[in-house]
Write a structure and sequence with these properties.
By secondary structure, the chain is of the alpha+beta class. The protein has 2 domains: about 100 residues, Ribosomal protein S4/S9, N-terminal domain (Ribosomal Protein S4 Delta 41, Chain A, domain 1); about 90 residues, Structural Genomics Hypothetical 15.5 Kd Protein In mrcA-pckA Intergenic Region, Chain A. The protein contains 8 helices and 5 strands; from the N terminus they run H-H-H-H-H-H-E-E-E-H-E-E-H. The chain has a 5-stranded antiparallel β-sheet.
């Protein structure tokens, strides 16, 4: 995804999304794109608010609509009506590509997806190239010896986000292997977000 498109997305939403990588993206132009952007921040309808919250998930995690719908359906399976949104966000945070991002191996979700798809990441010692794999408590995610060198040195030296409570580095002082040690929840989504609006969005669409 081009940097210009990423910037427009964030301007349209009125906030930065860490998964898109760049810090300070809205410091100079914190208003919607377009020639009337400075004066066109309109009050959103109920549907508009719900759509905006759903779009945040799509853009931050780098998902397509059908991918997110699939995770919604999975979350609803085995969850009661009041808790599936918690299960959804826990699964999104535990996707392998997101764990790679949250461990600081990459500065953006796009870079994390590339690391995984190019077979530079292992899960419990085995190479995995599917970013949508959901990591389980106790699983160890690590960079290959090749990727642990100069390829990711810059990202690891200045991670986009702080290490969350549900992850830890396996070896103290070495940030090339991480382990899932807890279950993330709604509060671990790393941007301002209204989970209830997403729940309402999909409830009205029978997903």
């Amino acid at each position: 995804m081009a940097n210009r498109t990423k910037f427009k997305m964030q301007r349209a939403l009125g906030m930065e999304l860490p998964g898109l990588g760049k810090e300070g993206a809205l410091e100079k132009r914190n208003y919607p794109p377009g020639q009337h952007g400075r004066s066109s921040r309109k009050k959103l309808s109920e549907f508009g608010v719900q759509l905006r919250e759903k779009q945040k998930l799509l853009f931050h995690y780098g998902l397509r609509e059908e991918q997110l719908r699939r995770f919604v359906r999975m979350a609803k399976t085995g969850s009661d009506a009041g808790s599936w949104i918690q299960a959804l966000l826990s699964s999104l945070e535990r996707r392998l590509d997101n764990v790679v991002f949250r461990l600081g191996f990459a500065r953006s979700m796009a870079a994390a997806k590339q690391l995984v798809s190019h077979r530079h990441v292992t899960l419990n010692g085995r190479l995995v190239n599917i970013g949508s794999v959901v990591v389980r408590p106790g699983d160890v995610v690590a960079l290959t010896a090749f990727a642990a060198g100069e390829m990711t040195e810059n990202a690891r030296s200045r991670p986009r986000l702080n290490l969350p409570h549900f992850l830890r580095f396996v070896d103290e002082g070495v940030n090339t292997q991480g382990q899932l040690v807890g279950m993330p929840g709604v509060g671990d989504v790393p941007f301002e977000f209204n989970a209830n609006q997403v729940a309402e969005y999909y409830a009205k669409r029978g997903v």
